[in-house]
Every structure is written in structure tokens, then in C-alpha cells.
Design a protein that fits this description.
6-stranded mixed sheet, 7 helices, 34% helix
Length: 229
């Protein structure tokens, strides 16, 4: 039997998922990859994100991806770049594939408006595939970003095949610390990373934008790789 290449057109299927369990599994898996002996207990929570993954998408056949600059509101340029870099770092930590994340201004040579609008054209994908020698491209959008009071970050991410433009995996979620369950997960994340990041009080993650961005990026990266259940 001939094996189908991973970038053949997947049969699109809307995945009705249990995001609460998925988020917990995602965080636990990524912390395990990072070398933590034991992940914190992640309590069930209301859904804060939805995801899609092509049923016939074989992760082990994606060898190299490039993370493009995020689409963002004009006032959130700096925040979008920080979130993009954090997301790329967490994707790299999964060990699934090599991740390229050039500085945002590197992409000014591509004048195609679709680069930041998340609408990949065949020409753009072919150009990126040749230039970076990648199998996939990560398009993303920072929909909401607020760090005054309790933080709130909304992000949409798509991993797109360079060969046919199909979406292989995607996440659409909001991480609002006003939701007690989200805040609890963020604090649990901080407790596991206090030593490496020198965060004295885990509660401070809710008052430290760069830390909260890393927490969101960790959950984003994990959700991209949770198989359908």
C-alpha cells in the first residue's frame, strides 16, 4: 500500500473538542518535554480555545517550519512580536520540527499583502518554501491584547502546508485571566517555572506581561499537537 504524503489534501472535519481536557494535556506534555519531573494538577475549566487538526496529518513528516509575523492591531506591534517569538520558542521546545522565526522586519522584502492578512497565496507559499526550505508556514493573528489589570490575550494560529496551501492544524483561543480557571492554569505554569525564570511569587505572572505571554504560547503550542479524541 502506498503511503499518502502528509501534504495531500486532508478531509476537513470540524472537530468538536473538549478544550478543558486538551489544555491540561497540552501543558502537561510540554512541561514533560522541558524536563519537569511532575506536572501540576490542571483542574478542568470552561473551554477557552478550539482547535483543528487534519485527520491524515502526520506530524513526523513536518521537518521544518517558519513562523511569520503576526497580524495585529496597529497599537500592538511590539506585543505581537513578543507573542510570536514566545510561540516559536515553545514550538521548538516540543521537538517536533525545526522552527525558524526571523525578526519581523526581515519579511519586508515580501510585498504580498497576504503575508500579514493570513491569506496564503500559492505564489507566497512557494516563495517561502524555496527561501527557507520549509514544509510548513505558521500564520497567526493577535486579535486582542490587554495587560491592564488582569491580562487577556486572544490568538488565532494556522499551520499551513507549503505544497498545497491546506491547513494542517489550527488553534483559536482567548486567555482571559478574569476567568478563574485560566488564572489558575497560569499560576500553575509559573509555579513550575519559578526556578528557571526567577519568579519569586507565582501570582506575579498575572502582573507580568512577558510571563503571561509565555504561558499562552505554551498552551498554544500544545494544542496544535493534541490528536482528535
Amino acid at each position: 500500500m502506498t503511503r499518502r504524503p502528509f501534504c495531500t489534501k486532508p478531509s476537513r472535519q470540524a472537530l468538536s473538542n473538549r478544550a478543558a481536557r486538551g489544555v491540561g494535556l497540552a501543558v502537561a506534555a510540554l512541561l514533560a518535554v522541558a524536563g519537569c519531573a511532575r506536572a501540576p494538577e490542571i483542574l478542568p475549566s470552561p473551554p477557552t480555545a478550539s482547535w483543528y487538526r487534519a485527520p491524515d496529518f502526520a506530524l513526523n513528516e513536518v521537518r521544518r517550519v517558519v513562523v511569520l509575523p503576526m497580524e495585529h492591531p496597529p497599537q500592538d506591534l511590539v506585543a505581537a512580536e513578543r507573542v510570536r517569538q514566545a510561540m516559536a520558542a515553545e514550538l521548538q521546545k516540543t521537538g517536533r520540527f525545526e522552527v525558524l522565526c526571523p525578526p519581523g522586519d526581515y519579511f519586508t522584502c515580501w510585498r504580498d499583502d497576504s503575508l500579514l492578512r493570513g491569506i496564503p497565496t500559492a505564489e507566497l507559499l512557494a516563495d517561502l518554501a524555496r527561501h527557507f526550505a520549509v514544509d510548513g508556514v505558521v500564520f497567526s493573528s493577535l486579535r486582542d491584547y490587554n495587560v491592564y489589570g488582569l491580562p487577556r490575550i486572544s490568538v488565532v494560529v494556522h499551520l499551513v502546508c507549503t505544497y498545497n496551501g491546506m491547513t494542517l492544524a489550527s488553534v483559536d483561543g482567548q486567555w482571559d485571566a478574569q476567568d478563574a480557571a485560566v488564572a489558575s492554569r497560569a499560576i500553575a505554569y509559573a509555579q513550575h517555572n519559578q526556578a528557571s525564570h526567577r519568579l519569586g511569587d507565582a501570582q506575579m505572572i498575572l502582573k507580568t506581561p512577558s510571563w503571561y505571554e509565555r504561558f499562552v504560547a505554551t498552551e498554544l503550542a500544545g494544542l496544535l499537537f493534541i490528536p482528535p479524541s
